[in-house]
């Protein structure tokens, strides 16, 4: 029975790491939630230097948040909702920054920006009608879209000229992401968090049918 004590200690240690990771992840999410009003103020006040660095920190902490969640399997419905809200608010602050610091991008790509805005409004409207709340799928496509958006936005604020190639890549991926989420809302009768995507949902459904 000598193995009992090491096993108990390992279980206790793992439980402690899980709790620590849970608190760290929530703290990171809360940071991104609370910093967005400051980002909006800095943009309106035309303080590009501090704005772009705080925005970079927000994107970096979002990446850490995702890594820790996957590494320690720390997930919850509340955490998923807060993470989605933090992501949306960070992107909103970035859009305010674009309107203030880089308005030429909007004028140059008005049609594509309109398509993105229209799809987002459609996705949000369908979700609110069907679930009475916003989605929090966190699909793989959404994660890829978030990375491409982050890369584009950082390049936009740190480079002297708008990186149009990065914008087109991010826009195309985001369009596919929004279309997938609209389809998921129409398919899934009840609100769900952390849905991998249409392919994995279809695969899961087929496995159930076989059983």
How is this structure best described in words?
- This protein has 211 residues and is mostly helical.
- 83% of the residues lie in helices and 0% in strands.
- It has helices at residues 4-44, 48-72, 77-101, 103-108, 110-131, 140-158, 164-187, 198-210.
- α6 packs antiparallel against α7 (164-187).
- The longest helix has 41 residues, at 4-44.
- It starts with a helix and ends with a helix.
- Mean pLDDT is 85; it is low at 6-14.
Summary of the model, kept short:
The chain has 211 residues and is mainly alpha-helical. It is built from eight helices and no strands.
What descriptors fit this protein?
single chain; 211 residues; mainly alpha; 8 helices; globular
Spell out the blueprint of helices and strands.
Blueprint: H1 4-44, H2 48-72, H3 77-101, H4 103-108, H5 110-131, H6 140-158, H7 164-187, H8 198-210
Helix pairs in contact: 1-2, 1-3, 2-3, 2-6, 5-7, 6-7
Structural category:
mainly alpha
Span from first to last CA? Answer: 40 Å
Sketch the major β-sheet.
none
Q: What general form does the structure show?
A: globular
Assembly type of the chains comes to single chain
- Total number of β-strand segments? 0
Q: What percent of residues are in strands? A: under 5%
Low-confidence stretches: 6-14
Helix content: over 70%
Radius of gyration in whole Å, from Cα? Answer: 20 Å
Order of helices and strands: HHHHHHHH
User: How much is the average pLDDT?
Assistant: 85
Q: How many separate domains?
A: 2
Total helical segments: 8
């Amino acid at each position: 029975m000598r193995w009992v004590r090491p096993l108990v200690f390992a279980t206790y240690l793992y439980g402690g790491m899980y709790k620590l990771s849970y608190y760290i992840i929530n703290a990171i999410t809360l940071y991104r939630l609370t910093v967005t009003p400051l980002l909006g103020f800095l943009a309106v006040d035309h303080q590009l230097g501090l704005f772009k660095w705080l925005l970079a920190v927000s994107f970096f902490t979002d990446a850490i948040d995702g890594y820790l969640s996957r590494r320690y399997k720390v997930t919850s419905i509340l955490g998923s909702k807060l993470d989605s809200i933090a992501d949306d608010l960070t992107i909103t602050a970035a859009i305010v920054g674009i309107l203030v610091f880089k308005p030429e991008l909007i004028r140059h790509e008005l049609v594509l920006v309109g398509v993105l805005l229209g799809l987002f409004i459609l996705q949000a409207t369908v979700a609110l009608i069907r679930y009475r709340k916003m989605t929090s799928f966190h699909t793989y496509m959404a994660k890829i879209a978030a990375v491409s958006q982050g890369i584009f936005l950082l390049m936009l604020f740190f480079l002297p000229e708008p990186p149009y190639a990065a914008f087109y890549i991010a826009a195309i991926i985001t369009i596919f992401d929004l279309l997938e989420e609209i389809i998921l809302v129409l398919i899934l009768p009840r609100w769900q968090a952390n849905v991998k995507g249409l392919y994995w949902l279809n695969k899961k459904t087929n496995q159930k049918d076989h059983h």
